[in-house]
Amino acid sequence: MTVSYSLKDIAEHIGADVRGDSDFRISGISTLRLAGANELAFLANSAYRQDLDRTQAGVVILDSEMAEYYAGQMLVVANPYLGYALTTALFDRAPIVAAGIHPRAVVADCANIDPSASIGPLAVIGEGVKVGANTRIGAGTIIDNNVAIGENCRIAGNVSIYHGVVLGDFVTVHSGAVIGADGFGFAQHQGRWIKIHQLGGVVIGNNVEIGACTTIDRGALDDTVIEDGVIVDNHVQIAHNVHVGENTAMAAFTGISGSTIIGKNCTFAGRAGCVGHITLCDGSHLTGGTILTKSLLEPGSYSSGTMFSKTREWKKNAVRFNQLDDLAQRVRQLEKKL
Q: What's the pLDDT score for residue 1?
């Protein structure tokens, strides 16, 4: 069934001013280049300004500055990207799952499942598990003993949550994620690795999103902690006893070593990482591929590695990089002679 909304409805939802026909109806969202006459588009980056001139969109979300360059119908907001984000909720087509436990799910008798929650087929719910109101557990997901999951969570299919993990409200966990596996703890003894049993858990706050195939290890003694509002992309590794502060974001393939403490409102671009036992202050930002080897005490943007170039040039520069210490010593000697 096709769903449509009037410009008035959308404007009220996102807090925009309507410039055009308030009763005009929109049935979908697309880009400036591809949007049709009954679709909505948005302009949040001036790099796409040229697309505004030739868009066929029925309405465009933009700010007051860009509105001066557009003659069509528009929804004017201070933050067009936020307006777009809020509008997507109106057109979300994710299936609506009925409350209740699927007959092919396996649920322990002592599990506490809210009647409004949904447990999918082939899901396994262990002893002492608590599942809050309106939470959805997808097909094939395994929830081990004594896990607590809050309200309005979405746990997708084929997620594994180990024993004793705690999830707050409005948490989303995508397929293939593993939460609460053992941290990588071993002791050396006579040439052999002796396992250190991981006795802590994982505590995840409210409004957290965890991407597909991401792993969050349980703590060795204390818990691994993910605070409210954290967003984690696909294929991220968070090791044991890491503490991630509120509203921090991690892009794909980020790797955080054990016992790292990360402040609030930090960002990790793709393939960034940290050695263990260091601290990042609030507002630390690592660019793509950055490997952090010591604590950050001042907020700001940090980078490591060398910029890309043609392979032949990069090889020459790599050799020169290894010669820097020798060159520095020679400069010091020359300075002394002068």
A: 64
∠ CA 215-302-284, rounded to 5°: 60
Q: How far apart are the first and last CA of the chain?
A: 83
Tell me the C-alpha distance between 242 and 26, whole Å. 45
Q: Could you give the percent of the chain with pLDDT greater than 70?
A: 100
Spell out the domain ranges in the chain.
5-91, 100-302, 310-338
Catalytic residue, from 174, 235, 240, 243: name it: 240
Question: In sequence order, which residues have a C-beta less than 8 Å from that of residue 118 and are 6 or more positions away?
Answer: 97, 98, 99, 100, 135, 136, 137
Q: What is the pTM of this model?
A: 0.91
Per-residue confidence band for 136, with pLDDT thresholds at 50, 70 and 90: very high
| Helix, strand, or coil (residue 90) | helix
- How many Cβ atoms sit within 10 Å of the Cβ of residue 289? 16
| DSSP reduced 3-state for 181 | strand
CATH class of 5-91: alpha beta
240 as an active site residue: the answer is yes
- Using one digit for the tens of pLDDT, what is the confidence trace for 192-220? 999 999 999 999 999 999 999 999 999 99
How confident is the model over 114-128, as a mean pLDDT?
Answer: 98
Residues 185/214/130/141 CA torsion (nearest 10 deg): -110
- Among residues 302, 263, 264, 261, the alpha carbon closest in space to that of 278 is found at 261
Q: What is the DSSP string of 95-128?
A: PPPPSEE-TT-EE-TT-EE-TT-EE-TT-EE-TT
Give the DSSP per-residue string, 227-265: -TT-EE-SS-EE-TT-EE-TT-EE-TT-EE-TT-EE-TT
Please identify, in words, the CATH class of the domain defined by 100-302: mainly beta
Residue 217 near residue 184, CB atoms below 8 Å? yes
